[in-house]
Design a protein that fits this description.
147 residues; mainly beta; Immunoglobulin-like; 2 helices; binds copper (II) ion
Length: 147
């Protein structure tokens, strides 16, 4: 219950930070230190305001990497979420930051981590669109998502 309430608070307070994306110099989903592969948009009803995105996030560097946020011009809010089960009931929580160890890979996948888009632009998500992954010590990494 506490987590659910916290999540609601974040939804209400969440500020849109696409500005950092626009000024980023990094154009590829692969840059010094990070590679994003197997990007997949989960199937959702067209009318749904939410979308989940999965991928594998590889830390190619020999230092730990800290993912601190995500943004997209195709949605009003974007968050890192993690799904989990409580007594057989699926829940999800907001992840403030996610540390990927040196040379490690974290899979964003059903039942686990995902990027959650909220308030999607229903036309934009029918075409290729971008998300921006924000790391503590890297420029925003742009990732192309295909419908
Ligand atoms: Cu979610």
């Amino acid at each position: 219950m506490i987590k659910t309430m916290k999540f609601m608070g974040i939804l209400l307070l969440g500020s849109f930070q696409w500005n950092s994306f626009a000024t980023a110099e990094n154009d590829a989903s692969s840059s010094a230190g990070v590679e994003v592969v197997r990007v997949q948009l989960a199937k959702s009803p067209d009318v749904s305001p939410m979308r989940a995105i999965y991928f594998s996030l590889k830390n190619l560097s020999d230092k730990e990497l800290v993912l601190t946020g995500v943004s997209s011009p195709a949605a009003r809010h974007a968050m890192i979420h993690r799904s989990y089960l409580v007594d057989g009931v699926a829940k999800m929580e907001h992840i403030e930051s996610l540390t990927i160890k040196a040379k490690d890979t974290v899979d964003f996948a059903p039942g686990s981590y995902h990027v959650m888009l909220m308030g999607v632009d229903k036309e934009k998500v029918k075409q290729d669109f971008e998300i921006g992954l924000e790391f503590e010590s890297l420029p925003v990494t742009r990732v192309m998502v295909k419908p």
